[in-house]
Amino acid sequence: MPAPIRLRELIRTIRTARTQAEEREMIQKECAAIRSSFREEDNTYRCRNVAKLLYMHMLGYPAHFGQLECLKLIASQKFTDKRIGYLGAMLLLDERQDVHLLMTNCIKNDLNHSTQYVQGLSLCTLGCMGSSEMCRDLAGEVEKLLKTSNSYLRKKAALCAVHVIRKVPELMEMFLPATKNLLSEKNHGVLHTSVVLLTEMCERSPDMLSHFRKLVPQLVRILKNLIMSGYSPEHDVSGISDPFLQVRILRLLRILGKGDDDSSEAMNDILAQVATNTETSKNVGNAILYETVLTIMDIKSESGLRVLAINILGRFLLNNDKNIRYVALTSLLKTVQTDHNAVQRHRSTIVDCLKDLDVSIKRRAMELSFALVNGNNIRGMMKELLYFLDSCDPDFKADCASGIFLAAEKYAPSKRWHIDTVMRVLTTAGSYVRDDSVPNLIQLITNSVEMHAYTVQRLYKALLDDISQQPLVQVASWCIGEYGDLLVSGQCEEEEPIQVSEDEVLDVLEGLLVSNLSTPVTRAYSLTAIMKLSTRFSSVNRIKKVVSIYGSSIDVELQQRAVEYNALFKKYDHMRPALLERMPIMEKTATNGPTDIAQTNGETDSTILDTKHLPSITHPASQANDLLDLLGGNDVVPVIQTTVPTKPASAGGELLDLLGDLSLTGGPTPTPAPSVPMSQPPFLLDGLSSQPIFNDIAAGIPPMTAYNKNGLKIEFTFERSNPSPNIAVITIHATNSTEADMTEFVFQAAVPKTFQLQLLSPSSNVVPALNQGSVTQVIRVLNPQKQQLRMRIKLTYTHKGSPVQDLAEVNNFPPQSWQ
């Protein structure tokens, strides 16, 4: 058989291939020749064939059929065969193939070989692909070589020991005696691999970490010698002595000094020397400085040293290399929480990085800029970030807008500034903001009572300029619907009021309904705004026409709203002013920040409810979410009633008939009550009447006084139904013994989840003075489990021009009312 071609000729031949198919043909032809040679047990050219096979493996072609040939080469006595055999084993074998176990004995023999280069080959192979079984079998030989005086073998044995520890951590203690003298070695290669071994042992075992902390002075001495040593051509890299060893020592010092005062104190001086003496004109010096900064930040270093580290990162920000600037921004972002003031000194440089062309640097600079925002620099930083928002790529706009919203909410110097900032974001990047931005801004505007006229005027102007930003249009529609009368009357004091007629405002809202830019949600906002203006404007007939048109809209949501609004105009016109009155001040929910009521794992402390006095509210009669805020805990089912003043009690049932389960509160949906058993009448939404249908007066159920305070007295009387004994009907009687009427009276109640409660409309919202009359209201309670009845009540009214709120818990119900 002719001699196979040499590896160099094969490489030259493959490189002449003009197409992938031609190269594949050459490879297949050569693989066939190699297989034939393997079958004939050709020992002469086995080394050459395996070398060619490894080259083809590097090109991505299959070479697994050469695995056993590698083992045969390893067993050979020739060094050239062993070298190719071990190289092939490292490339073609791993611990997933059982065949690798066949070479364990060969490696053990070679670890005890008389030639250091053969020992080195076996150490490299074991350290590269040794399995846990091989490591257990051969750890003793590695430990012996770690103690030898031969530097060439010690450095390879140290790296092999690292692999053994990773595979079999319990063998770590075997290498502990051998590590005692490793750092005394003068050879830099041994020092380097010894530091790697010590680092691995410290990271894997807290006991080893404590044991090796006594080596800190020795490591400091080695590092100091490297810094102070003169020029050494053997170790010099760009004018710095062995930067690789310096970096490894700094990493080990970082691990040893973390959380330990004594070790940190011992390395403070050397870290300061490295930080001040290292040349920064080359990348080598920057790499050492970066590791020094990380070490200073991780250990318990002095404050001056930390400032020095942050100043080094500040210098990195001025470097022309983008990678160094990115590393500096990332490191500053990690340290900004612990060393905020030191990082603040580089704020202008960080803000300049927002203008960088590299997107990674811009993103890191944006994140760091938001982390630097505080109450002192909020105006300046927001100016820069808003400018960045104007010019940044679309990928950044969503995150930037969210960051601005959060920073403005936390540090806003005034409500006007807060509103202006959020409106600027919506104008610039409205299509990119999060879904909760619209309700959050609406809440902000609602709670800023003195800014209503200014806000609605600004939003109206924004609508005239641009209707493409849907979140902005939605907020503007909501505000015009709520405060349209302020817009038309020109009551704005913060800036020059504009002259707007009712027809002009309606023209703008009608334009949103027909605009192709408007989403279905935006149209719903606009239609609701037009409906609200029916109680604020005099153009009621025009509004009726607009609403009636959309009663046949193909958009189901819009059609439903229009049908319900049409019903309000026709059948329920007497309820329209109460339903469309202005929204009250909205209290923040617990998800947006801490509340006044203490909570533990989502539960409200019931004891607080007995003493908690909520602040007075300007519009108590329509504070729909108050009861949810009041009750807080998870064990109650609140029923929130919308009061209908000056109308008979039957209006409440009509309202529920009209709107079904549509939420009128705009607040969070209450926790659903347990389903009513089929044997009981589902009385929650079934054509309610204000007059009780229970005519069987339960004998022996005495009335009770539920509340008596500040001249207001609430009495409960009880009725039970014979067919449905689980349903109790409670009639409240509110009387007023003071000399002035109590107006805007609202009674609210809530019961635990095991009950169901239905609160009907009151007979009036005025409690006459001097007990000259009373307000009555019916409560129906379903108690299927016949548990003791408990109820929390909330009373809101206006007395002598001052709003009053109070709450109480009623637990002393007569047993006959619930048994």
Biggest sheet overview: 5 strands, antiparallel
Question: Order of strands side by side in the largest beta sheet?
Answer: 6-7-8-11-10
Contiguous runs where pLDDT drops below 50 for at least 5 residues: 590-698
Number of strands: 13
Strand content: 5-15%
Structural class: alpha+beta
* General form: elongated
Radius of gyration: 41 Å
Number of helices: 34
Instruction: For the record, give the distance between the C-alpha atoms at the N and C termini, rounded to a whole number.
Output: 106 Å
Average predicted confidence as pLDDT: 81
Question: How much helicity do the residues have?
Answer: 40-55%
Family: Belongs to the adaptor complexes large subunit family.
InterPro entries: Adaptor_Complx_Large_Subunit, AP1_complex_gsu, ARM-like, ARM-type_fold, Clathrin/coatomer_adapt-like_N, Clathrin_a/b/g-adaptin_app_Ig, Clathrin_app_Ig-like_sf, GAE_dom
Membrane topology: Peripheral membrane protein
Protein name: AP-1 complex subunit gamma
